[in-house]
Specification:
With 83 residues, the chain is mostly helical. The protein is built from five helices and no strands. Helix 2 (20-31) packs across helix 4 (46-65).
């Protein structure tokens, strides 16, 4: 699995109990063999894209506050594809 997708999967796991859409996206990551984050983002529907955008904003802010530059870099790779 692409490292950006690995970080994304971990971030989604923080939200799967609260949002069914996060469960759906997490399941996609677990069951499909995406070659990279671009392929994953193209497979999302409009609702998933909107929720993922919000989740990533939260996760990026958290990573920045924790000064986890590697996590910021990896998640930002996915976030940039959404906008």
């Amino acid at each position: 699995m692409d490292s950006n997708l690995g970080y994304l999967r971990e971030s989604l796991s923080n939200h799967i109990d609260k949002h069914k859409i996060c469960q759906s996206m997490y399941h996609k990551l677990e069951t499909n063999q995406y070659k990279d984050e671009d392929e994953f983002v193209r497979d999302l529907d409009e609702n998933e894209t909107s929720i993922l955008n919000l989740i990533l904003q939260y996760e990026l802010d958290y990573a920045k506050n924790e000064q986890d530059d590697k996590r910021v870099e990896q998640l930002n790779g996915v976030f940039e594809l959404l906008i």
